[in-house]
Hints:
Layout: E1 3-8, E2 18-25, E3 28-37, H1 43-61, H2 71-92, E4 100-101, E5 103-109, E6 112-118, E7 122-127, E8 130-133, H3 140-146, H4 152-155, E9 177-182, E10 188-192, H5 194-197, H6 202-207, H7 215-228, E11 235-241
Antiparallel strand pairs: 1-11, 2-3, 3-4, 3-5, 5-6, 6-9, 7-8, 7-10, 10-11
Helix pairs in contact: 1-2
Amino acid sequence: MLAYGMSEKGPARDTNEDSFAYANIGNYFCMVVADGVGGECCGEVASKIAVNGVMSALKDSLAFIDSKDELPQFFKVIFNRVNIMILHDCLENRERMGMCTTLTVALLKGTELTIAHIGDTRGYLLHGSELIKLTEDHNEAGKLVKQGLLSEDEAKYHPGRSRLFKVVGENQYLNPDVYSYNISYGDLVFLCSDGLYSYMSGEQFKACTMERNKPESICSKLIAKALEGQSTDNITVTVVRAEPVTEL
Length: 248
């Protein structure tokens, strides 16, 4: 499986609050990206708990999933398990009270793609020459885009872009968005934090993906383009190319 991931602190932050992971687990390829919220409240801890918790749960339980129809409920269980882990950590470490994170998970099996999502970390699909956004942002700007009151470009500069209304680390039951897509072999699937996508256009994004069989080069070019666009945030991207499943 052609895949890669990369993260960059960026020039404006003292720490990197983004976390990511990717791995083959059984017949699935799994990617996770989390963007911690609240630097003074240990957002980097929240994102690491979320990513490590998701990967552990997938390794323990994904083999017992018989159908993609079971995945939405499976993801609800995982997201709420991770949510509880973050809340427990806050209780044990009072200085971390209030820490939370975005969380986006992609499972790819052949041409079947499932994404579970909370926050404003995004999933993208590159199909031919078309770049498709696969997730909705859970922030005030994203809500206005969904209502048709803002364009995607306008949302990049709207003050509501930084106001999340849905995160992991809340003291309530979580209902992640779960999306299911049928894609094509050769398509590229991306997960990335807002420090990447907010600082480039769709055309600039696509221009970084010309060498589709070189995922490390794609990630390097995307992060360089975000830095060129004067990103003021941490920058993280993972990518995988859809390929036929090799049965284990």
